[in-house]
TrEMBL record, chain A:
<keyword id="KW-0812">Transmembrane</keyword>
<dbReference type="GO" id="GO:0017003">
    <property type="term" value="P:protein-heme linkage"/>
</dbReference>
<dbReference type="InterPro" id="IPR004329">
    <property type="entry name" value="CcmE"/>
</dbReference>
<protein>
    <recommendedName>
        <fullName>Cytochrome c-type biogenesis protein CcmE</fullName>
    </recommendedName>
</protein>
<feature type="topological domain" description="Cytoplasmic">
    <location>
        <begin position="1"/>
        <end position="7"/>
    </location>
</feature>
<feature type="binding site" description="axial binding residue">
    <location>
        <position position="127"/>
    </location>
    <ligand>
        <name>heme</name>
    </ligand>
</feature>
<keyword id="KW-0479">Metal-binding</keyword>
<dbReference type="GO" id="GO:0046872">
    <property type="term" value="F:metal ion binding"/>
</dbReference>
<keyword id="KW-0472">Membrane</keyword>
From TrEMBL, chain B:
<dbReference type="GO" id="GO:0005886">
    <property type="term" value="C:plasma membrane"/>
</dbReference>
<keyword id="KW-1003">Cell membrane</keyword>
<feature type="transmembrane region" description="Helical">
    <location>
        <begin position="62"/>
        <end position="83"/>
    </location>
</feature>
<feature type="transmembrane region" description="Helical">
    <location>
        <begin position="95"/>
        <end position="114"/>
    </location>
</feature>
<keyword id="KW-0813">Transport</keyword>
<dbReference type="InterPro" id="IPR002541">
    <property type="entry name" value="Cyt_c_assembly"/>
</dbReference>
<comment type="function">
    <text>Required for the export of heme to the periplasm for the biogenesis of c-type cytochromes.</text>
</comment>
<feature type="transmembrane region" description="Helical">
    <location>
        <begin position="200"/>
        <end position="223"/>
    </location>
</feature>
<dbReference type="InterPro" id="IPR045062">
    <property type="entry name" value="Cyt_c_biogenesis_CcsA/CcmC"/>
</dbReference>
Length: 151, 244
């Protein structure tokens, strides 16, 4: 075996070991790397009351309402299977609307409601000019699943 | 390996570089001008994000280059460790600051974009965190290369770091698929085709090409100046030896 090919084998083995070690670590840390829980995760993970977590999903259609003086809002977050009621007091991001993906930070209370102190809007991977959306809507091709526009 | 080692000769490399450089520079200027004009004037605003979507034309190509330059450094490091190719270390050394610059640009424009769209300058989700790690890897690579008296040892240490750090590249790419993140999934490089309207994809692609050409131009200039510097050092030593 030449020096060159020995160096190559050492490098290949080292990279393979490193890659598998990283894969194992990342799999083990899966729960910590995940940025937010979905409403279904909330059920299965048995999240304790008062523990700070992030909850993400779509704002369910027809659930958004302003409470009292209008600074406090209430809406439901859904992932299709489960739904959680959220109350929040503060400024909502521009992209916030019903049907939009959002991530909220806060904790569950005794009644199973989520008290959020921060709401972030999640943007999806679709980029389109307004005219295209209007044309799609006019022809009935617009699926409008999670990126639904409420106008 | 003969083609590979043909350019190991610095003079041959310098000659080729001098021939290629004006052409690549010209193409860079043209593609950057066309790309920027399309990005800012002819491309339409997004149906959700409005005019803010124009940040994408800088942010996305920067992020692509951040990963591309790192991959180039990792490949150069493999060539350096296995074949001891003399230009490989130079290429890695010349690339690192450029890659760090692109990574910083991606982080900064992402932050400026995140505030109006998401509502936060920064979050610790898997995509943003892994790109920040990439930025630190670049800084570490640059520091390590210059940390030793002998350049040879610095090159070797930096090459090992570059190869070890390469595990981060697939993590960055797939972070948005493997974990829940605030950052949206890929829009261009995905199995079922892009989810960007052609009117926005074109300027993005041209900007991507312009950034890649810019990297080649700066890389060639930096390698060239390193080679010239080495030559000067050799001459100076020869002069000093003669004087004694």
């Amino acid at each position: 075996m030449t020096r060159k090919s020995r160096r190559m084998y050492v490098l290949v083995v080292a990279i393979a070991l490193l890659a598998s070690a990283t894969a194992l670590v990342l799999t083990a840390l899966d729960d910590n790397i995940t940025y937010f829980y979905s409403p279904s995760d909330l059920k299965t993970k048995q999240v304790t009351i008062g523990r700070a977590i992030r909850l993400g999903g779509l704002v369910e259609d027809g659930t958004f309402e302003k409470l009292g003086d209008g600074l406090k809002v209430k809406f439901s977050i859904t992932d299709g299977a489960e739904t959680v009621a959220v109350t929040y007091q503060g400024i909502l991001p521009d992209l916030f609307r019903e049907g939009q993906g959002v991530i909220t930070e806060g904790s569950l209370n005794e009644k199973g409601e989520f008290i959020a102190h921060e709401v972030l809007a999640k943007h999806d991977e679709n980029y389109m000019p307004t005219e295209v959306i209007e044309a799609l809507k006019a022809s009935g091709e617009w699926r409008g699943d999670e990126e639904q526009v409420t106008e | 390996m003969s083609v590979f080692h043909r350019f190991a000769n610095p003079n041959r490399f310098l000659k080729l570089t001098n021939q290629v450089l004006p052409w690549v520079s010209g193409l860079t200027v043209i593609s950057l001008a066309v790309g920027l004009y399309m990005s800012f004037f002819t491309s339409p605003p997004d149906y959700q994000q409005g005019e803010s979507v124009r940040i994408m034309y800088i942010h996305v190509p920067s992020a692509w280059m951040a990963m591309f330059v790192y991959t180039s450094i990792a490949i150069a490091s493999v060539c350096s460790l296995i074949w001891r190719h003399p230009l490989a270390d130079l290429a890695a050394k010349a690339s690192a600051p450029i890659g760090a610059g692109f990574t910083f640009l991606a982080l900064a424009t992402g932050s400026l974009w995140g505030k109006p769209m998401w509502g936060a300058w920064w979050v610790w989700d898997a995509r943003l965190t892994s790109v920040l790690i990439l930025f630190f890897l670049y800084l570490g690579h640059m520091a390590l290369m210059n940390a030793f008296e002998e350049q040879e040892r610095g090159n070797k240490a930096a090459a090992v770091l570059a190869i070890v750090g390469f595990v981060n590249i697939p993590i960055i790419k797939f972070s948005v698929d493997w974990w829940n993140t605030l950052h949206q999934p890929a829009s261009v490089m995905r199995a079922d085709g892009p989810t960007i309207d052609p009117s926005m994809l074109w300027p993005l692609m041209i900007m991507g090409i312009a950034f890649k050409l810019f990297y080649i131009v700066v890389l060639l200039i930096r390698i060239k100046s390193e080679l010239i510097e080495a030559k000067l050092r050799k001459y100076r030593r020869a002069v000093v030896d003669k004087a004694h």
